[in-house]
Amino acid sequence: MSTNVAILGLGTMGSGMAANLLKAGFPLAVYNRTAAKAQPLVDAGARLASTPADAARGASVVISMLADDAASRAVWLGPNGALEAAEKDAILIESSTVSPEWIAEFAGHAAQRGVGFLDAPVTGSRTQAQSGQLSLLVGGSEATLAAVTPVLKAISKEILHLGPIGSGAKLKLINNFLCGVQIASVAEGIAWIERSGLNREQALKFLATGAPGSPVFGAVSARMASHNYAVNFLLRLMAKDLLYAQNEAARCDLDLTTAKVARSLFDDAVAKGFGDEDMASVIEPLRKP
Question: Between the chain's N and C termini, which has fewer beta carbons within 10 Å?
Fold first, then answer.
């Protein structure tokens, strides 16, 4: 492959995406605030960049996968930021779960710089990132998307073009809002089962195959039951996503009351030290009288 790609951010998702780009043969530069996390990718052939700007230089496609609006702003627009260093014919892709408000602002900066831009957040977690089976929710022009489709195919099973810039960010927040509310209710349900004296295994088997069952229920209830909180999705990021969802819905004159309640459970878990564990650990404060 001759298309040079840069990845900014090597967390749970970004590291899997980067590994699949290398497997597909794309020359890859990687940047991460903690450089040591990049070593397995460097060993596999990636170039370690010292700054976001260093990563963007010479890259035709620059993808960021970061925690929130603040991290995205810092990497793109901060000192040694990637936007200013981007090549004139480059296409920038924001794959983080960020606010549509920030996406609109960033799109304006990209237009002033004269570079292409897509918002393309992903759905899936660690397993899908590692296996190249993410779904991409894309906002932007068809021509820009067509130009980067070979790159995106290396990290995904599905590319859904939703419309103009910002469409991806909006649907991603709706997706995570629905997941977050369900996860919060599963946590309360399992805590209730455990306190009630019911056989937990029997109860969860019934619920998983009945009307409440879903992929989210099956995966998260199993992690809650086994106390396995190896990170598939950071708990503190779900708290952030629910806040962003509330803010964006408010711009549409909609009060997400269920998001407010669910976020209170995630915020409580963050306050009690579970922020950097898997989101399934939201149950742990509920297990304690």
Answer: C
